[in-house]
Design goal:
62 residues; 5 strands; mainly beta
Length: 62
């Protein structure tokens, strides 16, 4: 799956704050994400995140 820093991920489940969109800060073996709703940052392993992504909006799409 092609996910780069700057992309916005729409997740299948909501974050506890109620938002379901995450901004990608760093990608690799694990992702550093920022919740769009509450701005909390966290790290999640790649295999866990790839299962829970609904859609990806790439940074260069506008």
């Amino acid at each position: 799956m092609d996910i780069r820093p700057g992309d916005v991920l729409t997740m299948k489940k909501n974050h506890p704050c109620g938002a379901n969109q995450m901004f990608v800060i760093r990608s690799g073996m694990d992702f550093r994400l920022r919740c769009v709703g509450c701005s909390r940052e966290f790290m999640v392993p790649r295999n866990k995140i790839e299962k829970s992504i609904r859609s990806v909006k790439h940074a260069d799409e506008g």
